[in-house]
Amino acid sequence: MALDTRHLKAVIFDYGNTLIEFSHAQVTACDTALAGALARHFGTPDAARLKEIRDNDRMAPYRTPEFRENNLVEITANLVRDLFGVEPTGEQIADVLRTRYEVFVRVVQADPYVAQVLERLGRRYKLGLLSNYPDGDAIRASLERTDLAQYFDAVVVSGDLGVVKPHPAPYLTILNALRVKASQAVLVGDNWLGDIQGAKGAGLQAILITQWKTLEMFDREDHHVEPDAVIGHLTELMHLL
Ligand SMILES: [Mg+2]
């Protein structure tokens, strides 16, 4: 591990469990609201089966060889078919998705130190946000609500591209938007596969953050590479970069 800051021009952040906590409490709040929306239309869902499907949905993009991001309409329709054995209407799906969006934006909170770190780093580097999430609008609304949007020169969300990190496409897209080369950028993230292996594979440096409880866990494989640094709290970046 040896972070090299000499040619660094851009710092790119993952969102969930990097800048903001998105762990058990937040996931539970989102899934509870989802269950409520389903209950309004179809009856009370089987809680255990719902959890099983949601846990599987969250990991599904990493299990496809092309790292395909979930399509929200598709997975919601499948959810309704599986839980209730009926075909949802477009309006029912739209209402369930509106609930998902609203609860996500409501539960995501940013501690004050996050803005301080971004403000400080933004004086010396271009800043990017690169998130794996199926709903780009929800991420952008969340960035407005947490007041973090102002610090980013570029925001790229997997839901807008159709593929998730570690696929190189999200990395190439944000490097292009920031107008920097891979060798001039570092990615900060919590996801071993999507963030660390993805960034290193695309030619960026990578910093692993272990501050929050990461829900997407991956086995370390022989061909995997190590991050260039590991931090236990976001504020440590002020000394590293
Ligand atoms: Mg994350």
Number of helices: 10
Mean pLDDT: 97
Q: Class of the largest domain in CATH?
A: Alpha Beta
Structural class: alpha/beta
CATH topological fold name of the largest domain = Rossmann fold
Poorly predicted runs are: none
Textual characterization of the structure:
It is a single chain. The chain is 49% helix and 11% strand. β4, α9 (192-201) and β5 form a beta-alpha-beta unit. The protein is globular and about 60 Å long. The relative contact order is 0.19. It folds into 2 domains: 10-21 and 109-240, Rossmann fold (3-Layer(aba) Sandwich), CATH 3.40.50; 24-107. The protein is an alpha/beta fold. α3 (72-84) crosses α4 (90-107). The longest helix has 19 residues, at 24-42. A 6-stranded parallel β-sheet has the order 3-2-1-4-5-6, with helices on both faces. The two termini are 15 Å apart. The chain binds magnesium ion. Residues 14, 16-18, 189-191 line the site of magnesium ion (MG). Magnesium ion is lined by residues 14, 16-18, 189-191.
